[in-house]
């Protein structure tokens, strides 16, 4: 009998760490930090009881955090002044809420507290201004940051940044006599009374002292010229096998748990390298195979043995090549692009297995409602911060991109839904082919805008250069196959009776303007096209699809108690805490530093900027999308026992076009289609043409 209750089994790991001398001392020959970590096999196991205990531990930890706040008021519950227990509890609740929620808010409005906070804010403002002027006082700043809340901390920094930016502009406008007077009257030691040892030494004395004690100055290390190909950090992580097993009781009468699902990831590789010349990085991810197995429908009667013929839910369609390969590099050496992104994947087959999916849902479905508000709040706050930071970084990097080397080639993913939720070669299936996705960069496109009388041809060519990206999704299709039909062979055909939706090809050309100085040219352009969307549906295959979906057993819904529903409703009504992003948005509305700094940059670069006419807006995004043809053909079966069909009704859309322009202050949208036809294939006119029930031909565009 095989039993396993270890969440993480003992694993073997080999790590090699090599720390070399500084780059300058060893003449840039080897990396300063080189790490090679090799994991042999990692086995993770979890069952329903462990998952339930984990939820209980998290809930108990949440209760402990809440208890630590109110534990000082527990003496009221043991007070003999009140005879009735209910009075003690009401007194406890009243005192705790009053001291923890009401009085802290009221004390914030006392004049003593307001004055103390204002003095603390002014002090931190001066310290932060000194930090902007390269006079740091870290100890004082850290002590003040602990006493100031997040909102006021960000607000003080924003206002200080505005004051610092304005002061820089005013200093540029001062004459040489004013600068001399300001320098003569200024006292550099007034703000910082502490004696600075480094300022009293000359550069030669500093170098001798640093060499004697083995210290490297930060400024000297920053000014060090590294070779472009030199790598100072080299990290390699290898994973031989990661296996995740989910254990559960398959039937209520079972005495021992069995593996209901196994996920295996083999031969994973992660490499990271950094080049300090321009602070560039290179990240490589390799994955050989991914496989997920489930429960066999015909279980072995012997409980001490496991049936090894498990159905496969996820597997690589091509076992010879690696499943996934990803490369990301900034400022690659072999090209002039800013970023190099490469991703390749092999086809992946996903089979829906009803028994495994239902058992997994029942395994991870808790018996009762767990109050995990503290954990949810922390997870929600981390998620929102990561999401907004990622969006900000992506948007800022997209604005700065001048050249991009991208090559993404993702093979098809096949999603198979079999009859009765169990895949067999002789069963009817619905196959969704998500298509072959390619995303590559194209050649630079030069756009000729309207020329003024006085213009510089070189500047205009630079302003109108676009980065071109080619996106294509090929062979997106939907199939319904009856018994004894092989979906692997049918998917290669362009037209067959099994095609509910024939193969669709989507092409999308993206272009990004490099120099955003010409308002007549859009910053982003997108031109998309689908040549045809064709669908042939017969009544027999349509009924077969509905019967197939109805034959799949879905998980049974469990009825929850009134107490669990009440707790769940209370948790939904609770509001999430304010995140860092929301604080930034509130302060940005109060102190629009982005707008102020943008106006200052525009004033400084007036000679480089193109004069914008009053009322003219910048085109942020321009999208043109066209579907040349949409055709839906309905067929009906001639005989009940025959597969022969005849055309019944045809619905035809011709040339659907949509255009949208997103400008600074408004949005322009335009759409049309040329013709709509509904044709009855059963009847003919006198001209021996099919009966046209509806036609709306629009020749004018």
From TrEMBL:
Matches recorded under InterPro entries: VPS13, VPS13_N
One Pfam family from the record: VPS13_N
One of the GO biological process terms: protein retention in Golgi apparatus
UniProt superkingdom: Eukaryota
Stretches with biased composition (Basic residues): 569-578
Domain Chorein N-terminal span(s) in chain numbering: 7-579
Keywords, comma-separated and alphabetical: Transport
Region (Disordered): 557-582
PANTHER family: VACUOLAR PROTEIN SORTING-ASSOCIATED PROTEIN 13A-LIKE ISOFORM X1, VACUOLAR PROTEIN SORTING-ASSOCIATED PROTEIN VPS13
Name by which UniProt lists this protein: Chorein N-terminal domain-containing protein
Species: Rotaria sordida
Lineage, opening ranks: Eukaryota, Metazoa, Spiralia, Gnathifera, Rotifera
């Amino acid at each position: 009998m095989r039993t396993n209750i270890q969440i993480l089994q003992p694993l073997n790991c080999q790590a090699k760490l090599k720390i070399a001398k500084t780059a300058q001392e060893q003449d840039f020959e080897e990396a300063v930090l080189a790490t090679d970590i090799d994991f042999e096999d990692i086995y993770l196991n979890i069952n329903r009881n462990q998952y339930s205990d984990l939820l209980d531990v998290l809930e108990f930890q949440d209760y402990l955090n809440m208890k630590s706040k109110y534990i000082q008021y527990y003496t009221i519950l043991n007070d003999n002044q009140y005879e009735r227990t209910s009075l003690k509890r009401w007194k406890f609740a009243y005192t705790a809420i009053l001291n923890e929620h009401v009085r802290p808010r009221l004390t914030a409005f006392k004049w003593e507290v307001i004055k103390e906070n204002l003095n603390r804010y002014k002090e931190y403002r001066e310290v932060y201004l000194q930090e902007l002027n390269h006079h740091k006082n870290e100890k004082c700043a850290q002590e003040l940051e602990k006493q100031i809340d997040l909102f006021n901390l960000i607000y003080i920094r924003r206002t200080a940044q505005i004051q610092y930016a304005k002061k820089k502009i005013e200093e540029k406008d001062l004459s040489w006599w004013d600068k001399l007077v300001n320098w003569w009257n200024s006292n550099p030691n007034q703000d910082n009374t502490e004696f600075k040892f480094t300022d009293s030494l000359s550069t030669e004395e500093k170098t001798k002292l640093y060499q004697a004690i083995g210290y490297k100055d930060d400024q000297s290390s920053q000014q060090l010229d590294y070779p472009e190909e030199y790598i100072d950090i080299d990290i390699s992580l290898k994973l031989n096998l990661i296996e995740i097993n989910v254990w559960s009781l398959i039937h209520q009468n079972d005495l021992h748990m069995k593996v209901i699902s196994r996920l295996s990831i083999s031969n994973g590789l992660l490499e990271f390298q950094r080049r300090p010349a321009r602070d560039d990085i290179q990240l490589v991810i390799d994955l050989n195979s991914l496989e997920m197995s489930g429960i066999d429908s015909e279980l072995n009667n012997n409980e001490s043995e496991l049936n090894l013929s498990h159905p496969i839910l996820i597997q690589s369609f091509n076992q010879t090549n690696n499943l996934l390969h990803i490369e990301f590099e900034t400022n690659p050496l072999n090209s002039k692009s800013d970023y190099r992104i490469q991703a390749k994947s092999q086809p992946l087959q996903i089979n829906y297995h009803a028994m495994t999916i239902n058992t997994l849902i029942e395994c991870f479905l808790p018996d009762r409602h767990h109050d995990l508000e503290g954990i949810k709040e922390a997870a929600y706050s981390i998620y929102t911060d990561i999401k907004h930071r990622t969006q900000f970084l992506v948007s800022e990097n997209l604005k700065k991109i001048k050249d991009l080397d991208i090559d993404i080639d993702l093979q098809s993913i096949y999603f198979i839904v079999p009859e009765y939720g169990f895949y067999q070669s002789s069963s009817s299936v619905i196959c969704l082919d998500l298509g072959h996705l390619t995303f590559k960069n194209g050649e630079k496109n030069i756009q000729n805008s309207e020329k003024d009388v006085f213009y510089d041809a070189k500047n205009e060519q630079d302003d109108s250069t676009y980065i071109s990206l080619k996106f294509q999704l090929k062979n997106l299709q939907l199939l319904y196959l009856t018994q004894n039909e092989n979906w692997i062979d049918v998917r290669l055909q362009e037209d067959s009776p099994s095609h509910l939706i024939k193969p669709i090809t989507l092409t999308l050309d993206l272009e990004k303007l490099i120099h955003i100085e010409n308002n007549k040219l859009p910053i982003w352009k997108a031109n998309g096209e689908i040549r045809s969307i064709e669908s042939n549906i017969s009544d027999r295959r349509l009924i077969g699809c509905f019967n197939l979906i109805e034959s799949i057993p879905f998980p049974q819904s469990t009825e929850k108690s009134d107490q669990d529903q009440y707790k769940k409703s209370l948790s939904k009504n609770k509001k999430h805490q304010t995140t860092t992003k929301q604080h930034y948005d509130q302060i940005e509305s109060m102190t629009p530093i982005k707008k102020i700094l943008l106006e200052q940059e525009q004033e400084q670069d007036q000679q480089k900027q193109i004069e914008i006419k009053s009322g003219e807006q910048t085109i942020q995004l321009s999208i043109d999308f066209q579907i040349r043809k949409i055709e839906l053909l309905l067929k009906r079966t001639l005989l009940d026992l025959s597969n022969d069909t005849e055309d019944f009704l045809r619905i035809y859309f011709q040339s659907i076009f949509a255009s949208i322009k997103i400008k600074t202050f408004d949005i322009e949208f335009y759409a049309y289609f040329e013709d709509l036809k509904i044709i009855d294939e059963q009847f003919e006119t006198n001209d021996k043409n099919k009966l046209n029930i509806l036609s709306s031909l629009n020749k004018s565009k």
